[in-house]
Amino acid sequence: MKYTRNRKKFFFIPFGIAALLAIVSYVVMLLWNSLLPEIMNVKPISFWQATGIFILCKILFGFGKGSGGGPWARHRMAEKCRDMSPEERLEFKEKMKNKFCNWNKQEPNNS
User: Fold this and answer.
1) What mean pLDDT is reported for the chain?
2) How far apart are CA 69 and CA 103, in angstroms?
3) C-beta pairs of 84-88 under 8 Å, 24+ apart in sequence
4) Cβ(45)–Cβ(34) below 8 Å
5) What is the CB-side half-sphere exposure of residue 103 using CA atoms within 13 A?
6) How many other CB atoms are there within 10 angstroms of residue 28's CB atom?
7) HSE on the CB side for 97, CA within 13 Å?
8) pTM of the model
9) For residue 24, which of 68, 57, 61, 73 has the smallest C-alpha distance?
10) 48 vs 29: CA distance, rounded Å
11) Looking at the predicted structure, is the pLDDT value of residue 89 above 50?
12) Which residues contact 24 (CB under 8 A, 6 or more apart)?
């Protein structure tokens, strides 16, 4: 019985995704057609063009949270650091400094 319930849930997932895509595309179309023709003198777009713009933006700019989060995710980093010993914190800070601060610097050539 439990198997059939899970199967029914998976059956409705594509419909939920399609409904979400339709709602977002409709909002993109409404915003485009209400703002951009007056601001930038462009033509209004159809629902399918708005869907294409949305999908293109998701492909170019990403589908989700990503790896780093943002300023709003600072509390998660604080939680991770809270459980570290002082030595682990220093080691972590050094790794982050090397990873992010020295990315553009080249190694000196010893030849």
Assistant:
1) 81
2) 20
3) none
4) no
5) 5
6) 19
7) 6
8) 0.53
9) 57
10) 9
11) yes
12) 54
Q: What is the full DSSP assignment across the chain?
A: -HHHHHHHHHHHHHHHHHHHHHHHHHHHHHHHHHHHHHHH------HHHHHHHHHHHHHHH-SS-TTT--GGGHHHHHHHHHTS-HHHHHHHHHHHHHHHHSSSPPPPP--
Q: Which two tokens stand for residue 90?
A: 């220093």
Q: Which two tokens stand for residue 48?
A: 């399918």
Structure tokens at 37: 């023709």
Does 46 score more than 90 pLDDT? yes
Crossing angle of helices 2-40 and 47-61, rounded to 10°: 100
Q: Is 108 left (phi over 0), alpha (psi -120 to 50) or beta?
A: beta
pLDDT digit string, tens, across residues 53-82 = 999 998 888 776 655 556 666 777 777 778
pLDDT digits (tens, 9 = 90+) for 8-18: 778 788 899 99
Name residue 69's amino acid: G
